[in-house]
Amino acid sequence: MKKFELSAFVEVQGIGATSGLVYLNNLLYIVSDNSTFLYQYTISDNRLFKIKLFENSQESIVKKDKADFEVLTFFDNKLYLFGSGSTKNRNRSVIYSIENKSIKEKDLTKIYKKLTDKISIDDCELNIEGVIITPEITYFFQRGNSINAPNGVFCYERENQSVTFNLITLPKVNEIEATFTDAILIEETIYFLAAAENTNSAYDDGEIMGSFIGTINLTTLKLIDCIQISAKNKFEGLTLYKKTATEIELLFCEDNDQEELASTIYLLKILL
Question: How many CA atoms are closer than 13 Å to the CA of 128, on its beta-carbon side?
């Protein structure tokens, strides 16, 4: 992944603090970590629609109360939103059916407790930033940016509810280690985003030191490659846009920790 090209793809007005996105059928589905709406953006005519996830869905929710939906992932014709898990308010998942527009809520408390118990961390140190769902296993990507929490991948086998954890060590910027901000599966390879942020908390933000793109082998969960793509941005919300035999195009968003209701979606082209 030594040859890449990064550029702005589109500016989306009406949504800020973007944390996850999925590209499907010429539409972008987007989540914000301080909102309880799911957003649908039509690229062709630059229109943004809001889908209520709860009866009292809100925007610009204060930090201590927000559901902190850091994850948006696609599986079996459904969109899954996951809270980060770092507070009790953030232990929820919402499932949105593309086919019939139905919405279902799930409490993740018991599953997240299995994750924290596995690596012996406090609940406040759990920080789920990416999820990949396969027919048998759900992969939770833990952003290890707090003092005692490691960076790595939980493998949750849904049938027997067992959990394993794989430590993933990423490069550093000025002694600050990069940690996961999202992940997707493309064929048998995991593509992930990571950011170096000068904070020891899963709750509080810090100075952004840059962002990385990397790959992990799905079978072994071993790191294949990881390169820095920005020295100033905190990229999140990774999704596949296009793939050919020689090039892959990825879209992602940026959580700039600002209150402005405008978000830039970026395009990253990688020569294979």
Answer: 31
